[in-house]
Amino acid sequence: MDQHFLTPLFSPKSIVVFAGKADDPASQTLQAVALHRALVAQRFTGTVVFLDIHSSGTLADLAHTQADLAIIVLPPAEVASALEIAGRIKCRAALVISSGIDAAQAAELHKIARRDGVHLLGPNCLGFQRPHLQLNASVAGNLCAQGPLALVSQSGALTSSILDWAQKNGVGFSTVVSLGPNTAVDMAQVLDFLAADAHTHSIVVYLEGISSARRFMSALRAAANAKPVVVLKAGRKPPGNRAALTHSGSIVGSDDVFDAALRRAGAVRVRSFVQLFSAAKCLASRYRPVGRRLAIVTNGGGPGVLAADWVSEINLQLASLTAEQAQALKTQLPSLATLSDLIDVSEEAGPEHFKAAIEAAGKARQVDGVLAIFSPKIGMDSGTIAAALADANKQLGKPLLTCLMGDASVGEARNILNEAAIPTFRTPEAAVGAFGNIASFYQNQQLLQQTPPPLSDLAKPDVEGARMLIESVLAERRKVLTEMESKALLAAFHIPVTKTILARNVNEAIMIATQLGFPVALKIDSPDISHKSDVQGVVLNVLNAVGVRDTYIEMMQAVSKLLPEARINGVTIQNMASKKRGREIYIGLVTDDPFGPVIAFGAGGTMIELIDDRAMELPPLNQFLARSLIERSRVAETLGEWRGAAPVNMESLEQVLLRVSEMVCELPQLREMDINPIIVDESGALAVDARIVIDNAPPSMRHYNHLAILPYPSQHEQVWPLHGGGEYTVRPVHPDDASMLQEFVRKLSPESRYFRFVSSMQELPATMLSRFTLIDYDREMALVAVYRERRSGADGRETEVNRIVGVSRYITNPDRTSCEFSLVVSDDFKGKGLGSRLMLSIMDFAREKGLTEIEGLVLANNPAMLKLMRSLGFHVKSFAEDADFKLVSQML
User: Fold this and answer.
1) Which end of the chain, N or C, is more open, meaning fewer C-beta atoms within 10 Å of its C-beta?
2) What is the pLDDT of residues 328-349, one digit of tens each?
3) Looking at the predicted structure, is the pLDDT value of residue 437 above 70?
4) CA–CA distance from 182 to each of 98, 100, 133, 490, 788 (Å)?
5) Is residue 402 part of a domain?
6) Helix axis angle, 428-448 relative to 213-226, nearest 10°?
7) Which residues on adjacent β-strands are paired with residue 42?
8) How far apart are the C-alpha atoms of 72 and 52, rounded to whole Å?
9) How distant is the alpha carbon of residue 445 from its chain centre?
10) Is the previous residue joined to 620 through a cis bond, with omega within 30 degrees of 0?
C-alpha cells in the first residue's frame, strides 16, 4: 500500500501492447508504427508482449497474459475492445495514444476503465517516457536522456518541441508525460505521482486548463512542497469583465487569479516558451530556492549594465561586495577591474580572474547567486574561461548562471558548461530572468508554508446574523445589497464603517444630517445603480441644512433623468470622514472560475479602474499573508511616512483584510465585493462605502467547499481526559508542529518506530517531516494528541511545554471514497486511551469528508495494534501481497 496508485502506469514491470498486427505494418496506424519503433529502439527493463484483438483464442489463453500496463494504439473504433481485454487480463493501468476520439467516446472509455479499476491515461495524447526504465511509451520522438527534471504537458506539439530542444542542450528528464484533452488520469494525479517519485527532483508544467481547482491546488501544493515546480500557462485572457457589478469584478482578470493561485501553491509561473526553457536549464542543474540578491561578474561593461538594468526591472537586488571583500579581491584582478556595483574584471581578465571573482562572490554572505558574463575578446579562448567557470562551480554553494555573448566563437564553451550542468544563456536578460525564477521559489515557498485558520483570533463575528441578512435579500430575489445592507454585513464581522442612515424624503434628510452633524455626504440608494458617481449620485462635504435640501432634490432629479427605470430607495446620509491625511485604498472580492473567491487589494477612490492597482491572494488569509498582500500593491509605497503624513496603522489595515477573509470563508454566497474607499491613517481604518453582490450557494458550501484552499479545521480541536488524571488536546496538525513531531519520533522506542514506519530510522528526514506537517486538509488529515507537561530548565526553574504524545493520520485513496490510516502513540502514554480516541476522531473526520471506508496495514507481529483494531470493530484479514502484514478495514 506504500506504492503510489499510478506506479503500474509510470513504473510498470510488464506491458501488453495493442497496436495491430506486428508483422503487417500496412495494417497499423502511423502512431502504431511509431510506437512499435520507439519500444524496440531500446531495451525496456521489464517485459513487453504484443497482442492483436483480432487474433483467435479463448479467455483461458488471455488469462496467461498478465501485465501492469496496456498500451493501446488502434483506430478509434477498436480502442474500446482493447480496453475491455486489458480489464480482463487485470491490467491496472492503460495508455491510449489513439487520436481522433471525441468527448463522447472518451467518456465511454472512462466508464470501462472505472468499471475494471484501470487508471487510464488518454485518449488523444502522445504517451509518456521514463528514461531510467528505458521505456519510451510515446510517439513524441526518441527516448530522452535521463535526468532529474519531469515534464508534464497538455500540448503534444509542445512536448515534442521541448524533447527536441533538450536533446541539443543536454537536458535530461526523469519523466515526460503528454496529457490529452480527454484523459482520465489528469494533471493533478500526475503531479501527485511526481511529488513522490524519487527519480524526479523538479517539475516543469505546460498548462492550458484545469477541471477542478481544489484537486489541482491540492496536488500542486504537495508537489511544490517537495520539489521546485515551474508552470507555463497558455490562454491568458484579457483582464476585465464588462458585466461585472463592482470595480473589483471589472479590473481583476482570470489570469491575475491564476498568478495568485500559483504563488500561493509555492510554484513559479513563467510567461513565455523561452522562459520555460530557461527555467528547465536551471531546474536540471538542481538549483534550489534562494534569495533575490544576484552578483554580476563580467568582462564587459555594456553587457553587465544590461544585466543590472534587468535585475532592477524584475524586482531583484543587485548584490555587490563590501569594501573589505572588494579590497581583498582587487589584488587578484587586472588593474582596470572595477568592483563598485558590478564585479567588472575588465577586458584583460583571463580564466584565473573569472574564477577568483566567482569564488569571492560565493563566499559573500550578502550574495544569493552569481551571474558570469563573458564577451569574446581577441586572443582569449572561451573554452578556457568555461573550464574555469566549471571548476569554480564545484566549490560554489550558490547558483551559478552564465551568459556567453556571441555565437560562433563560444560554441565549444557552451558545450563545456552544458556538460558541467551549468545553465548558460545567450543574453544577459535571459540569464537574469532565469535567476528570477529560482529566486521566486524562496518567496512562494514562504506563502506555501502558511496555514491560516478560517476565523482569526479577533472578536468573534456575528456569522448567523450575516447569514440571516443574506437570506432575506435572496428571498426578495435580489443579488445586489444596498449600501446600508453592505455596511451591516461588514459590521457583523467588526469591520469599522461610517454611520449611515437612509432618508426617504427631503425632511428626513435634513433632520438626519442635523443630528449627525455637518459636514455630511449624500449618496443615492438604489439596488440598480452599481457606481453612484457615474449618475451624479454622490455629493460630499454638504455644510448645512439648505445644502442638504438642494442636494437631495437635485440628486433625485438627475438620477431619475439618467436612469428612469432604476428603483430608488432614497438617499443615505453619513458624516464626512475626519481622516484629513488618510490614504484611500480598496479591498475587493471576485469569484473566479475555477479557483473560487479571490481577495483583491489596491489604491481606491473614484479612479480605481484608471489607477488599476491590484494585488491578489486566495483566501483564507493569516497575518503573514495579509501583510504580503499589502506589500505587493503599488499603494503600499504611500502607507509609510508620505508627504508629511504619519505612517498608517498597518495593524488595523491587516485586521480589515483578516475580517474580509473571515467573510469569504463563512459566507459562500458572496460573489463580488467592493469596500471602496477605505480611508486609513495613523489612527486606524474606516470603510466609507461598500457594495456587495451575492447569489445562492449549495448546502455543501458550508464545509468550505467553495474555497480552492481548505482552511485549518479548528472546529476539530477537542480536549479529552487522560486515564489516570490530567487532560490532552486532540487537534489537526499544522506546520509549526514540525519540531514537536521530530522530538516525538526520536523518543519512540525502536519497536514503536519500526511498527509505524517499517524502518529503523532514528528520526524523520526533512522532506518527510515537511510532508507530515504541511498537509492538504482536503486530501488527508493528521490529528495530534498534545499533552502539556512540566519540565525543568537549565536554571532549575520549571516551565510548562507542549508535547505531542500521539498521531493518527489518513490519506484519501485514488477512488476518493476510501482512505488509508496510520497510528502511533508515545510508549509512556500507551494504555491511557489515546489510541482509541485518536482513531475514533480520525474516523469522524473521514466520515464528515464523505469517505465510506477506512483501511490500513498492520504488521502481523504487532498484537497490541491488532487488538485495538478489533476492539474498534475493524475487520482483520491476511494481506495477499505480503504475509508480514494484516489488512484491517472498517466501513464508515
Assistant:
1) N
2) 999 999 988 899 889 999 988 8
3) yes
4) 12, 11, 27, 44, 53
5) yes
6) 110
7) none
8) 10
9) 9
10) yes
Residue where a domain stops, chosen among 448, 474, 492? 448
Question: How far apart are alpha carbons 352 and 362 in whole angstroms?
Answer: 15
217-230 in b/e form (b: 16+ CB < 10 A) is bbbbbbbbbbbbbb
Q: What is the pLDDT of residues 677-706, one digit of tens each?
A: 899 988 889 999 898 999 988 765 557 888
C-alpha separations of 589 from 247, 693, 694 in Å: 10, 10, 11
How many whole angstroms separate alpha carbon 859 and alpha carbon 757?
10
Max Cα separation, the chain? 100
Q: What's the pLDDT at 237?
A: 52
88/114 Cα distance (integer angstroms):
13
Average pLDDT, the chain: 86
**Taking the complete model, does pTM exceed 0.85, yes or no?**
no
Report the domain count for the chain.
Answer: 2
> Is the residue at 575 inside a domain?
no
The region of weakest confidence among 252-256, 300-304, 372-376, 557-561 is 252-256
Write the CA distances from 284 to 38, 146, 202, 278, 441, integer angstroms.
24, 11, 8, 10, 15
The continuous run of DSSP H or E covering 728 comes out as: strand 727-732
Burial state string for 560-576 with b = 16 or more CB within 10 A and e = fewer than 16: eeebeeeebebbbbbbb
Torsion region of 596: left, alpha or beta (phi above 0 gives left; psi -120 to 50 gives alpha): left
Query: Could you tell me which of 198, 399, 448 has the C-alpha nearest to residue 290?
Result: 399
**C-alpha cell, 684:** 486606524
**Quick one: average pLDDT of 770-787?**
86
Q: Domain end: 448, 471, 498, which one?
A: 448
Quote the domain boundaries for residue 335: 290-448
Residue 379 lies in a domain: yes
Residue 383 CA to residue 19 CA, distance in Å, equals 49
Strand, coil or helix: 347: coil
Q: What is the CATH classification number for the domain harbouring 755?
A: 3.40.630.30
N-to-C CA span, the chain: 20
What distances in angstroms separate CA 4 from CA 62, 507, 857, one per listed residue?
27, 73, 15
CA distances from 237 to 205, 209, 256, 618, 653 (A): 19, 12, 9, 19, 31
The predicted structure's pLDDT at residue 167: 84
Residue 364, domain CATH: 3.40.50.261
Class of residue 211 by CB neighbours under 10 A (exposed 0-12, middle 13-18, buried 19+) = exposed
Query: What is d(CA 502, CA 414) in angstroms, rounded to the nearest whole number?
Result: 73
Q: How far apart are CA 770 and CA 737, in angstroms?
A: 10
Cα separation, 369 vs 434, whole angstroms: 11
Q: Is 323 exposed, middle or buried, given 0-12, 13-18 or 19+ CB atoms closer than 10 A?
A: exposed
Query: Which one, of 269, 266, 317, lies nearest residue 289 by Cα?
Result: 266
Please tell me the predicted confidence (pLDDT) of residue 241: 42
